[in-house]
Design goal:
This protein is of the alpha/beta class. Helix content is 48%, strand content 14%. The protein is built from 18 helices and 14 strands. Strands 2-1-5-7-8-9 form a six-stranded parallel beta sheet. Strands 12-11-10-13-14 form a five-stranded parallel beta sheet. Helix 1 runs antiparallel to helix 2. The longest helix is centred in the first third of the chain and has 26 residues. The radius of gyration is 29 Å and the shape is elongated. The N and C termini lie far apart (60 Å).
């Protein structure tokens, strides 16, 4: 249970205790308004029952607080039967006050004072953008941590929702996953929610389930934190990413550097000079850098097939990105063909091709006229064993296993540079 709910329970008990004074004043009048008192008692009972129901829904039956609340409700009922007996009313009112005091003490005992933190990844391949924060939270004895992978949809060419995906079974074994259908956000009110998808309904390739749009999550938490799924040079961020809905709605945004923070501020103030987002932009780096620095070739686990295909040759990680593909169109397809032709059959080097996880989906949605050609190229690469094909959800085995980077200028470049290995950016227009 979150600290937010714990505070709410304490506040509710305090409200009941204040109501006792109102009740006492009503009972001590020369002419008791029984209808007024009965209404007040009914309201008090409803509040006490809702408290007990909330605790039972989260913790199950058997909590001592619930038993104290049941006794409190019993006293309220007895009071409704004794309104014509002033001495008995005073005795029962005294019991109510004592019981409310015990309920408050018991809430403190039954409900741990722990922060409830929820992580909402949607693609397993993007878990690295949250992983090091999750590890730190998991080690904090004062935190209760939940990882809740959320469903997402492909977008059809008309932007309607297509196939739904859920990747809860693709996360590392060390990550305890909670099914999104078994966590009641409205009931539990987590203290802090971490997201890495900022687009809400503004992504034309995929969309997380609308329930998990940032504007909706804000209703259920005091702190919504956006951690970007991408990394860059740290000197700036594109306007579309800076002004995404998740950035607007977040209470805090983790940014790579002070320079990048200033870039966010410029985009915000260009949009509206009255806005100053400085306080919510935290230049703390990126969990993705933490992960990249930790991978080592001798320690990273890769499929035996990779080792067999590498055969002692130098391994070049070939990364192809969505933005370069969308900008390149036909020229990009021709570049892929030339690269595959160049590396086919080489004895000194092998290509480890890792297309963006959404590459095929993006072709189908945004470049349907090139979709068939891309599929044929992909099938050729695999069937002719031109190199190693990596469509796994985890990019870090490829980073650790390779000797150098070649490909598009994407966020993976900035991660790869953290390893100290060579990086070369391809030019689609170079033959």
């Amino acid at each position: 249970m979150s600290r937010t709910i714990r505070k709410q329970l304490f506040s509710t008990v305090d409200l009941l205790r204040k109501t006792h004074k109102v009740l006492e004043g009503s009972l001590l009048k020369k002419q008791v308004n029984e209808q007024e008192v009965m209404g007040l008692l009914a309201d008090m009972q409803e509040v006490a029952i809702s408290m007990g129901t909330m605790i039972e829904q989260i913790y199950g039956e058997g909590e001592k607080t619930v038993k104290e609340l049941e006794q409190y409700c019993e006293t309220l009922y007895r009071l409704t039967l004794a309104l014509q007996n002033l001495p008995e009313c005073r005795n029962l009112l005294k019991q109510l006050k004592q019981q409310a005091g015990r309920i408050r003490v018991q809430v403190g005992k039954d409900i741990p004072d722990r922060l409830e933190a929820v992580f909402l990844p949607y693609k397993a391949s993007m878990w690295d953008s949250l992983e090091s924060i999750w590890k730190a939270a998991k080690e904090d004895e004062e935190a209760e941590v939940y990882v809740i992978p959320i469903p997402y949809f492909d977008r059809n060419p008309d932007t309607s929702f297509g196939k739904m995906h859920y990747e809860g079974d693709l996360f590392p074994n060390e990550v305890k996953v909670t099914d999104y259908q078994n966590y009641d956000f409205e009931l539990r009110r987590p203290d802090i929610i971490f997201i890495h998808n900022p687009y809400d309904d503004g992504n034309y390739v995929t969309s997380v389930h609308p329930f998990f749009y940032s504007q909706n999550l804000k209703k259920f938490t005091e702190k919504l934190v956006y951690v970007p799924y991408f990394v860059g040079a740290g000197d700036g961020v594109a306007e579309g990413m800076a002004l995404a809905k998740g950035v607007w709605n977040a209470d805090y945004v983790i940014v790579q550097s002070e320079d990048e923070k200033q870039s966010y501020i410029r985009h915000f103030q260009k949009y509206d000079p009255r806005i100053d987002p400085a306080d919510k932009l935290l230049p703390l780096g990126s969990p993705k850098f933490d992960k990249a620095r930790a991978v080592r070739r001798g320690e990273v686990e890769v499929p035996e097939d990779w080792k067999k295909k590498a055969g002692g040759r130098k391994v070049l990680l070939y990364n192809t990105s969505l933005s370069c593909m969308l900008n390149g169109n036909e020229a990009y397809m021709e570049k892929l063909e030339r690269v595959f032709d160049f590396f086919a059959g080489r004895e000194d080097a092998v290509l480890l091709w890792r297309p963006h996880p959404l590459m095929e989906t993006t072709f189908a949605s945004m470049r349907p006229e090139l979709y068939g050609r891309y599929r044929k190229l992909r099938e050729r690469f695999i069937e002719e064993e031109i190199g190693i094909y990596d469509d796994s959800s985890d990019m870090y085995p490829a980073i650790g296993f390779s000797d150098a980077y070649y490909g598009d200028g994407s966020s993976l470049v900035w991660l790869y540079r953290e390893t100290g290995k060579p990086v070369m950016i391809q030019d689609v227009n170079v033959q």
